[in-house]
Each structure stands twice: as structure tokens, then as C-alpha cells.
């Protein structure tokens, strides 16, 4: 092995190494992700410190079959395999945790011992410690030892506070004031413009370190975040409430901030440059028009690798699953089938990777952003805000039909004109007991007819329900009636 990192070219290649039972550490990365590049340096040094382990690297988007097999939906991501089994994982850019997890699985640190940053030198040797320090220096500090596993480096704390203090009113948002990337950010921008105050902004989509760090620093898990003279006021809901009550204006005045002509000052340090659509993007007028048309094909539009039923990468599959969980209609475009669109859209949206999700023509983001928005409930709010209504699934429809009447009979035909003897017998039994009931003719709706068999796990008709619960078919109903239990069962 020789202490080097090897790029994996296929799932079969990785499977063979894992099946050998050797210690395998795999780094899932992406060329566009700065955090991946930093962690790759750490990964390379670790491969030297632990030459008896296999250190493998997988380009997550270029190897969708592997990413899907290991449920990779964000990068950087690491899996640790031993004796043919995955024994640990790590998500995110945390050099200390990576070094210590490698050391533990390799046997240098025992399971009962803490994976503290102080043990980093012992866990991975002086080479990796030096590398982590160098990474920290890039952020303006060499005090990497002060980092705790769930905390922040002194350098990052300093940077966050400097950003917060860079303007009397400072907004951390998705996108920029001219091109907000979520409805909540847009609302706060509109409020500040209505208040006629100058404010600075920072696009947290451009810098994952700031984005994740600020959540911990402020103890506020979502964005936007609005600050006044260095103090957190809150997110969108709080800003709206304060604005509507007049409290926001009072807070600004109390801090010596008076209304003026709106002028949005931008923070100079904005990271990698991902963001809004460029006015002069260098694309031809025809391609620009075509891309705009594609984006607006459907209110919810997903540009992905593959198709919803056959995704060609784990990140695309994740967004498809999220949209299906949100129960919204969406259209998609397979960027692998059209190189002009694939390359052009990167320029048009100034977003370098796929998938890309658009709602009502506005870019929401990729897999990481969509996943975070779903977890926080923000995605559902945005969809509702944009007037996109959840579609009714067959299961939803069946549930509604089943509870549409306390006693509900799914039969062939109608009570007055049954189309099979079993349905006729159940209708007669219910009427003889003097029971009121609703009914549905399954012969008129093949979707309901087939769907209900699966939903109820009952393959035949009629089917009788009481308060949403399946009672049974003809035999059970007649047995209940002959035992004198039918009326009481349906009247509890």
C-alpha cells in the first residue's frame, strides 16, 4: 500500500478491497467543494501515518453507484470499513475527528478513550498536526489546539465576529439583496428596504465554514440571521413581527441607526463566487432564452443527472426523494443528455454542480441546501409561499374515501344496483340491521380498485370499514350478523 491515496474507478474495485477484510478508509469528495480539498490534504497525510490501511478516494458525483451504495448525500464524507463491514462514518470537514477515527479503527486509540483534539499528535503523528495547523493559518490563526469537537476555532470565532460587526445592521442570508435565494431571505431584505436603513449582507451559500459556524456561534440553526450592532435579533419570523409592531424601527433608532436612502453594502470577503445569475454571462441569446424557458417549464424544476425513476447520482436521487416526500409535482431535465444545457446552466445560474432545484424560476440550490431546508421545514414553507400545493397521493385519496362515512362499503355496483352477489349480501345485511352507510363503486375507478387491495392487504371485494378500520369482506360481515354482533361492532 505504501501510504498513498488511490482514486477508485468503479464500485467493483471498491467492493473487492472492502471484501478483503482489510482496513479501508474512503473519502467521498467533490472538486468544487473547498472543504473537500482541505480534508484531502489531511487524508493524504494520514495515509502516510497509517501505511497498512487502504486510503481510497471517490469523486462522489462521478461515481453515483458508489455514493448511492453508501448513502452519501453531502461532501466531504468518510466511511471506515474493517473485516468487510462499515464500522464508522464521518460527515463534514473536521480534521481532528478524522485523525482520531482513523487512529481508533487502526487500533492506536482504544474505544474507551476520548477523541480529543489534544490527542491529535499521538493519533496521527506530527505530520498531520502540522497540516491541520497550516489549514488553520489560512483562516488567520494557528490556534487549532483550541478547537473542540463540537466547537469553533479561535480563528473562525474571530472571523464571524468581524463579519457580524462589519456593519451596524448585518444580514446573513441565502443569496444577496438583489437576488435572494430563498423566500425568507427575500422577506427580510424587503423589510430592511421598507425600514429604509443601510445594511450589509453575507451570502452564506458561498462559504460553508461561515454557514455552519454561525449556527453554533449564534445558537440559531437557520438562515437568514439579522444582527444589529453585533447583537442577534433573530430570523425571518422575528424580523416580520418586529417590523409589523414597529419594534424594529425602535431598535434601530435606539442604536443610533436612522432611516436613509436604501443602500445595500456588500461584504467584500465572499468566498468562492457561487451566487446569482450574471447579467453578462457570455452565453448566446438563444441559449440564454432556452435555459430560461427550461427553468420555467414547471413551477418546480429539477436539473439532475438521470431521470427521477433512474437517477444517475446519489445527490440527484436525494433531491428526488425529498420532492416526493413533499408531495409536489415537479418536472426534471437530464443534464447528461444535453452537454450544451449542462455547461450553459452552470454559467447561467453561476452554480457549478448538479442537481439544481428551481422553484418558480428561482434557484434554490443543490442537494445540501435542499436537504437542510427540508429538515428545518423551510422547504415546505417556500413551496406554500410560492403557491405550490401538495399533490394528493393515491394513499391520501384512499384514506379520505375510507373515512368519508363512519360505516363505509367498497363494493361492486351501488346499494340499489349491486353488481355481484357478495356485495348484494353485505348491503342486505347492513340494511336489515338498520345501519346507515356510505358506499363506493370500485368498478368505476380502477385506481381505487387496485390501490385498495394493496392499502388494506385484502385482495377481494366487497370491503367494509368502520371509522377507518377494515372489518372484512362478505364472509366476516355475514358471520358477525349471524352472531348478533354486526350492529354492535359498527356502533361502538
UniProtKB/TrEMBL annotation:
Keywords: Iron, Iron-sulfur, Metal-binding. GO terms for cellular component: cytosol; nucleus. It comes from the Eukaryota. Residues 1-107 form the Thioredoxin domain. InterPro entries: Glutaredoxin, GRX_PICOT-like, Monothiol_GRX-rel, Thioredoxin-like_sf, Thioredoxin_domain. Pfam families: Glutaredoxin, Thioredoxin. The keyword Secreted does not apply. GO terms for molecular function: iron-sulfur cluster binding; metal ion binding. GO terms for biological process: intracellular iron ion homeostasis. Belongs to the glutaredoxin family. CGFS subfamily. This is Thioredoxin domain-containing protein. The lineage of its organism: Eukaryota, Viridiplantae, Streptophyta, Embryophyta, Tracheophyta.
Amino acid at each position: 500500500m505504501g501510504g498513498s491515496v488511490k482514486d477508485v474507478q468503479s464500485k467493483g474495485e471498491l467492493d473487492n478491497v472492502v471484501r478483503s477484510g482489510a482496513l479501508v478508509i474512503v473519502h467521498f469528495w467533490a472538486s468544487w467543494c473547498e472543504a473537500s480539498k482541505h480534508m484531502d490534504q489531511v487524508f493524504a497525510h494520514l495515509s502516510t501515518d497509517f501505511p497498512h490501511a487502504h486510503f481510497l478516494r471517490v469523486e462522489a458525483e462521478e461515481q453515483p453507484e458508489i455514493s448511492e451504495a453508501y448513502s452519501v448525500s453531502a461532501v466531504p464524507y468518510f466511511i471506515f470499513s474493517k473485516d468487510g463491514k462499515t464500522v464508522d462514518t464521518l460527515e463534514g470537514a473536521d480534521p481532528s475527528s478524522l485523525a482520531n477515527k482513523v487512529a481508533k479503527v487502526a487500533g492506536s486509540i482504544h474505544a474507551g478513550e476520548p477523541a480529543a483534539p489534544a490527542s491529535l499528535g499521538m493519533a496521527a503523528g506530527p505530520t498531520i498536526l502540522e497540516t491541520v495547523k497550516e489549514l488553520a493559518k489560512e483562516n488567520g490563526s494557528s490556534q487549532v489546539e483550541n478547537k473542540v469537537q463540537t466547537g469553533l476555532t479561535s480563528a473562525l470565532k474571530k472571523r464571524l465576529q468581524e463579519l457580524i460587526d462589519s456593519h451596524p445592521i448585518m444580514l446573513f442570508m441565502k443569496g444577496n439583496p438583489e437576488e435572494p435565494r430563498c423566500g425568507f431571505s427575500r422577506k427580510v431584505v424587503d423589510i430592511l428596504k421598507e425600514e429604509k436603513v443601510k445594511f450589509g449582507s453575507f451570502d452564506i451559500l458561498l462559504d460553508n465554514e461561515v454557514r455552519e459556524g454561525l449556527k453554533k456561534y449564534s445558537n440559531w440553526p437557520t438562515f437568514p440571521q439579522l444582527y444589529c450592532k453585533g447583537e442577534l435579533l433573530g430570523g425571518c419570523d422575528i424580523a416580520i413581527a418586529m417590523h409589523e409592531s414597529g419594534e424594529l424601527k425602535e431598535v434601530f433608532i435606539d442604536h443610533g441607526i436612522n432611516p436613509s436612502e436604501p443602500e445595500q453594502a456588500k461584504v467584500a470577503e465572499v468566498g468562492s463566487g457561487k451566487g446569482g445569475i450574471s447579467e453578462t454571462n457570455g452565453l448566446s441569446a438563444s441559449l440564454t432564452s432556452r435555459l430560461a424557458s427550461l427553468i420555467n417549464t414547471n413551477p418546480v424544476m429539477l436539473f439532475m443527472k438521470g431521470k427521477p425513476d433512474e437517477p444517475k447520482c446519489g445527490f440527484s436521487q436525494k433531491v428526488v426523494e425529498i420532492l416526493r416526500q413533499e408531495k409536489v409535482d415537479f418536472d426534471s431535465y437530464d443534464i447528461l443528455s444535453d452537454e450544451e444545457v449542462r455547461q450553459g446552466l452552470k454559467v447561467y445560474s453561476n452554480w457549478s454542480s448538479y442537481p439544481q432545484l428551481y422553484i418558480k424560476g428561482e434557484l434554490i440550490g443543490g442537494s445540501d441546501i435542499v436537504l437542510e431546508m427540508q429538515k428545518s421545514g423551510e422547504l415546505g414553507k417556500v413551496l406554500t409561499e410560492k403557491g405550490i400545493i401538495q399533490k394528493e397521493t393515491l394513499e391520501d385519496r384512499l384514506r379520505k374515501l375510507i373515512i368519508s362515512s363512519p360505516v363505509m362499503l367498497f363494493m361492486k355496483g351501488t346499494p340499489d344496483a349491486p353488481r355481484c352477489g357478495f356485495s348484494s349480501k353485505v348491503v342486505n345485511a347492513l340494511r336489515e340491521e338498520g345501519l346507515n352507510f356510505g358506499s363506493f363503486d370500485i368498478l368505476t375507478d380502477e385506481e381505487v380498485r387496485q390501490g385498495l387491495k394493496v392499502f388494506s392487504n385484502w385482495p377481494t371485494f366487497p370491503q367494509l370499514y368502520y371509522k377507518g378500520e377494515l372489518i372484512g369482506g362478505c364472509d366476516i360481515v355475514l358471520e358477525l350478523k349471524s352472531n348478533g354482533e354486526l350492529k354492535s361492532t359498527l356502533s361502538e
